[in-house]
Amino acid sequence: MPNMPEKDPGLWAAMIAWLVMHQPQLYASGLSVGIAVLRVMYGGGTRRQMYLEGALCGLVTLSLVPLLEWMGLPQSMATFAGGAVGFLGVEKVRGYYDRAAAKRVEG
């Protein structure tokens, strides 16, 4: 094993290829985190709320990207989804999901 694997150009090429392949998801989740943090700051929330809301919005956005693919929408819609999740917040998104799930269960 080489002493400095970070000097291997193949490693860097693989990392850059992975970033390019997952760019829409990473951009959408980053946008979601940024908007959520700014929204909490604007609302006067604590630093803890900023970190948690940002992390949760980013993770929710990452979970929405495969749903967009399943629905037949382009991956470029991930940016819109990230912005919407960050703007609405985790509580609103959870409320929408709960209502949709209740409608499915009721028939």
Descriptive notes:
The protein is an all-alpha fold and 107 residues long. The protein has one domain. The chain contains five helices and no strands. Helix 2 (23-42) runs antiparallel to helix 3, helix 2 (23-42) packs parallel to helix 4 (77-88) and helix 3 packs antiparallel against helix 4 (77-88). The longest helix has 24 residues, at 47-70. The model has no long low-confidence stretch (mean pLDDT 91).
SSE inventory with pairings:
Layout: H1 9-21, H2 23-42, H3 47-70, H4 77-88, H5 90-106
Helix pairs in contact: 2-3, 2-4, 3-4
Q: Can I get a quick summary?
A:
The protein is mostly helical. It has 5 helices and no strands.
Structural class, from secondary structure content? mainly alpha
Q: Calculate Rg over CA atoms.
A: 18 Å
Mean of all residue-level pLDDT scores = 91
Using the alpha-carbon principal axes, give the shape. Answer: globular
Would you identify the regions where 5 or more consecutive residues have pLDDT less than 50?
Answer: none
Q: Which sheet architecture does the biggest sheet show?
A: none
What is the helix content?
over 70%
First-last Cα distance: 59 Å
H/E element string? HHHHH
Q: What's the β-strand tally?
A: 0
